[in-house]
Amino acid sequence: MRATQTADVSLVQEGAVLTAIPRGRLDFGNARSALDQIVRALQPRPSEVVLDLSRITYLDSGGGALVMALRERLQREGIRFFVRGAPPNVQAFLLLIDQQSLRAPALPAPVRTPGPIMRLGAGALKAFQDLRELIAFTGNLVLGLRDALLHPGRLRWRELWVYMERTGVDALPIVSLISFLVGMIMAFQAAVQMAQFGADIYVANLVALVLVRELGPLVTAIIVAGRSGAAFAAEIGTMKVSEEIDALHVMGLDETRFLVTPKVLALLVMLPCLTLFADLVGIAGGLVVATAWLDLPATVYMRQTRISLVPWDLYTGLIKSIAFSVLVAGVGCLRGFQAEGGADSVGQVTTSAVVSGIFLIILADAVFTVLFHYW
Amino acid sequence: MGGGEAVIRVRDLVAGYGERAILEGVSFDVYRGEIFGILGGSGCGKSTLLKHLIGLRPPLGGQVWLYGQDLWAGTEDDRRRLQRRIGVLFQSAGLLASLTVAENVALPLEEYTDLPPDMIALLVRMKLNLVKLLGFESYLPAEISGGMKKRAGLARAMALDPGILFID
């Protein structure tokens, strides 16, 4: 919604002197129009321009900027410029605008886009700093968890329940939906191939084994990284930029005990629970496809599922989900502590928490898969 | 008390959030040229009252007139037109973190006027000069002190020469 009004400006050319006489208001709404009218009248080029302000009734900063812009432009072009007839209040306003100081050069902005060598050095330093922070953070986290186990009374239980609800119970709908769909997709893809060999019944084995050992923990952890890891980073990041964490520091309180331990413990409990739930729902997805598409009776499918699984399959999935929970919560909190400055920094650390979380989950999953293979 | 018509007129205002009234029966007039302060203990509802006065949150009851127009009676567009004629300095300055100090001050000028960029730059420097921040045009809010942020917020609040300046 831009103000565009035409200024009422009379232009009188007397020899080499151009007199501009604006009438009425000279404000934000018509300053551009006034400037354009005066600049158009500079052909033929006068030797002197007089701005007669005796007929104006109101002048705001927009009008003031017009006077200054005109003065600067005419000075550049070597044309003399005078203001005359300004009412006392307008004169006072124009005097308030200290043109000399306005021409002072701005301070150079702090360097934000350094050259490639500086970027390389800064990147190396940041990587080193990240590593140091990671080690310190891991140490604090281990101490925090140890304290929570040794002195459960000191744990902030109220926060722990809240985070368990947020990270676990509230995640049930999305985890259910995605696991069910993953189970269905796997069963459908397997059914198409296995039906060719009359091995339809083994769809149950494939769905159960892949879900319980691999995809159940993996998909659940990735969902939780996107939900809770990001939420942890945003929450702590916002606290950091609004100096809440500094306040905890100066009160002599340990931010790990206050902010990190409840979150990590909550995920440590809830992610394995969610993983078990995802396994069950995923198997149910496979069951739906097997009964609807392959005409397998539900009892046969479930018996085959039971036969294909041994307790160790379940344990491997749970061990993975426990490790993923520490990674997701830890990296979310760590990134939150790395926020600096303002809101944009909170956005950056939140993105970084999700990206790092997913990367670490997949890396850890690969390591576990190899370990369990040789175990 | 000043003379003439009140630029802010508040009658029987009930300030609060949701269903919860914090202040009731608030009535006062503020006249052109007047400096009007609202004092009170922490949590007594000063900022809540301000939010009703600047069109951010509808009051639970009563009326607010700015320049003789009922702020909450008209449409959203009517309210926006009135909001263009006021300046607000928030407690935390409210500067946009991704914009430099100059860009923050220039924002209302670019949005609400058709002035060319060189005149806007001149106006930005005028406003920054008024709050003694000339020279810091290229700095981001995160690169200046808390007091300087407040002053930059004041320069932005004054960018369009508002007839009423609210300072929280």
What would you note in describing this structure?
The complex is a heterodimer of chains A (375) and B (168). Chain A is α/β, with parallel strands linked by helices and 375 residues long. Helices cover 70% and strands 8% of the residues of chain A. The longest helix of chain A is centred in the middle third of the chain and has 39 residues. The two termini of chain A are 70 Å apart. The mean pLDDT of chain A is 90. Chain B has 168 residues and is an alpha+beta fold. Chain B is built from 5 helices and 6 strands; from the N terminus they run ββαββαβαααβ. In chain B, the strands form 2 sheets. A 4-stranded antiparallel β-sheet of chain B has the order 2-1-3-4, with helices on one face. A two-stranded parallel ribbon of chain B has the order 5-6. The longest helix of chain B has 14 residues. At the A-B interface, helix 1, helix 2 and helix 13 of A face helix 3 and helix 4 of B.
Low-confidence stretches of chain B at least 5 residues in length (pLDDT < 50)? none
Query: How many DSSP E strands of chain A?
Result: 5
Profile the largest sheet of chain A.
5 strands, mixed
**Shape call of chain A:** elongated
- DSSP helix fraction of chain B: 25-40%
Strand adjacency order, main sheet of chain B: 2-1-3-4
Q: Classify the secondary structure makeup of chain B into a structural class.
A: alpha+beta
Shape of chain B: globular
H and E order of chain B: EEHEEHEHHHE
User: Helix-strand pattern of chain A, N to C?
Assistant: EEHEEHEHHHHHHHHHHH
Question: Quaternary state, please?
Answer: heterodimer
List the helices and strands and how they pair.
The complex is a heterodimer of chains A (375) and B (168).
Chain A: E1 8-14, E2 17-26, H1 31-40, E3 48-52, E4 56-59, H2 61-76, E5 80-84, H3 88-96, H4 99-102, H5 116-150, H6 157-167, H7 172-194, H8 203-241, H9 244-250, H10 255-293, H11 298-308, H12 311-337, H13 343-374
Helix pairs in contact in A: 1-2, 5-10, 6-10, 7-8, 7-10, 8-10, 8-11, 8-12, 8-13, 10-11, 10-12, 12-13
Chain B: E1 6-17, E2 20-31, H1 46-53, E3 61-66, E4 69-70, H2 76-83, E5 86-89, H3 101-112, H4 117-130, H5 146-157, E6 164-167
Parallel strand pairs in B: 5-6
Antiparallel strand pairs in B: 1-2, 1-3, 3-4
